[in-house]
Write a sequence for this structure.
């Protein structure tokens, strides 16, 4: 197989013994280059994950790796004594120099993880039971990191969920109209303007800063092949200080609607209440004991805000000429924006019912 990088020579720099057998691209991520590498260790085929960090997105990969090393070490201590501890936390494999990462001749930063066997990720949720298990795992992840010792983690993407700044970026894109597209997105621009007031709600609630994952898509939890339990939270590149509700809100955004993120038939886009209920119950089963009353009260709202925020980002990128998100057709980012804004509407229509459910839990 023709690989983008010389994975074999990169793998040699990590403390992996045995003979190199193979490497192939792995997973469905769009940011980093990820490979499954196989070694022969005494006649046994053992798999590892090797990743090149995309330094165009993550401008300070060394700081990012410091975060990951601290977080995985802390989670490892918290999981000590568990019968399958090595499957419950991502385990970094050090380089032969004892570092958490290898820098190659081109300046790329690489890392290696133990491969978690007998568990898998799903790109789309298949049942409310799965949604419950994933939310429970994300809640447990936050809970275990609630006492991470100082210092504060690095911000790997500054202001990632700062909705007012995302809104300001949209206003600048409208003003500049760099791609002459404002005329094509009038209904979406008007929708954004009508909802500007929600941008500051979480920031103005003075919620405590937490260690958060910041990319709680359903496929960032590995589910056990046998039990279906959410055993390991993966993709830790955006783990940094944030609000707990950023994570819950992104779960609502990515798990409750059956439609694809770029679905053109907007009648397909709806917030399915049973999925929301599964997320709320699963998340609170792990997180309830450390969340404040204000955090719990704003759980339903957080789904609306984070969905609105990503809609703003898609709309901004469309107006700027598709400079950030990869697009595969004309108007792709505008289609993505429309699905988000339709989901905001669906959440708004059910918000009262969502509030009642969370209050009852």
């Amino acid at each position: 197989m023709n690989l983008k990088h010389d994975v074999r020579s990169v793998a040699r720099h990590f403390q992996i013994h045995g003979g190199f057998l193979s490497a192939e691209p792995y997973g469905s991520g769009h940011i980093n280059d990820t490979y499954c590498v196989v070694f022969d260790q005494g006649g046994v085929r053992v798999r590892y994950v090797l990743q090149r960090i995309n330094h165009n997105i993550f401008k300070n990969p060394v700081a990012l790796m410091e975060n990951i090393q601290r977080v995985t070490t802390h989670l490892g201590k918290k999981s000590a004594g568990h019968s399958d501890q090595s499957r419950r936390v991502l385990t970094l494999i050090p380089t032969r120099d004892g570092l958490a990462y290898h820098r190659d001749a081109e300046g790329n930063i690489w890392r290696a993880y133990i491969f978690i066997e007998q568990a898998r990720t799903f790109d789309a949720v298949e049942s409310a039971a799965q949604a419950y298990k994933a939310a429970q795992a994300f809640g447990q992840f936050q809970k275990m990191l609630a006492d991470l010792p100082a210092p504060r983690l690095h911000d790997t993407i500054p202001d990632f969920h700062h909705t007012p700044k995302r809104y300001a970026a949209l206003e600048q894109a409208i003003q500049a109209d760099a791609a002459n597209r404002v005329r094509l997105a009038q209904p979406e621009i008007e929708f954004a303007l009508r909802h500007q007031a929600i941008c500051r709600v979480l920031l103005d609630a003075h919620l405590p800063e937490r260690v958060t994952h910041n990319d709680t898509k359903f496929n960032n939890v590995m589910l056990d092949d046998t039990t279906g339990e959410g055993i390991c939270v993966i993709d830790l590149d955006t783990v940094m200080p944030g609000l707990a509700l950023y994570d819950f809100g992104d779960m609502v955004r990515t798990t409750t609607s059956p439609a694809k993120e770029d679905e053109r038939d907007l009648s397909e886009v709806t917030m399915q209440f049973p999925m929301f209920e599964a997320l709320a119950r699963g998340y609170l089963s792990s997180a309830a004991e450390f969340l404040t009353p204000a955090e719990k009260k704003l759980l339903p709202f957080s789904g609306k805000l984070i969905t609105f925020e990503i809609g703003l980002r898609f709309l901004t990128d469309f107006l700027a000429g598709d400079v950030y998100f990869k697009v595969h057709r004309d108007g792709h980012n505008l289609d993505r924006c429309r699905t988000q804004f339709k989901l905001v509407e669906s959440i708004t229509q059910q918000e009262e019912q969502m509030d009642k459910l969370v209050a009852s839990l």
Notes: The longest helix spans residues 332-360. The mean pLDDT is 95. Residues 144 and 173 are 40 Å apart (CA to CA).
